[in-house]
Amino acid sequence: MEQAFNDTSVMRCPVCFSRDVDVLMQHENDQHYCIKCSFQGSESEVRAMYKDIQKKFHWNTKRIPLEQQRQM
User: Fold this and answer.
1) By CB neighbour count within 10 A (0-12 exposed, 13-18 middle, 19+ buried), where does 32 fall?
2) How many helices (H) and strands (E) does the chain have?
3) Which of these, 2, 8, 28, 41, is most buried using a 10 Å CB contact count?
4) Residues 6 or more apart from 37 whose CB is under 8 A from it?
5) 20 dihedral zone (left: phi>0; alpha: psi -120 to 50; beta)
6) Going by C-beta distance under 8 Å and a sequence separation of 6 or more, which residues neighbour residue 58?
7) For residue range 3-26, what is the model confidence (pLDDT) as tens digits?
């Protein structure tokens, strides 16, 4: 029970999260792994994948008119 309160890094699987499935990753040594899709990687790899997922929602809060979309 004490271990649950000491672990402050809660990470979601970036592979599952990009598919709109919310799965928490397990942490063992310096590796994080997903119990659903078998993805495993270090914290830096997971955070890099989070940045890629954020790019997907970059234009989500901005309205782009059709004329401007045609110019892109």
Assistant:
1) buried
2) 4, 3
3) 41
4) 13, 15, 16, 23
5) left
6) none
7) 554 555 788 999 998 888 889 999
Q: How many degrees, rounded to 5, is the angle at CA 17 between CA 65 and CA 59?
A: 15
Helix (H, G, I), strand (E, B) or coil at 54: helix
pLDDT by residue (tens digit) across 38-66? Answer: 999 998 999 999 998 888 777 778 888 88
Identity (one letter) of the amino acid at 54? Q
Q: Is the pLDDT of residue 36 over 90?
A: yes
Categorize the per-residue pLDDT at 2 as very low, low, confident or very high, splitting at 50, 70 and 90: low
Between CA 38 and CA 51 the distance in angstroms is 20
As given in the structure block, the two tokens for residue 71 are 């110019």
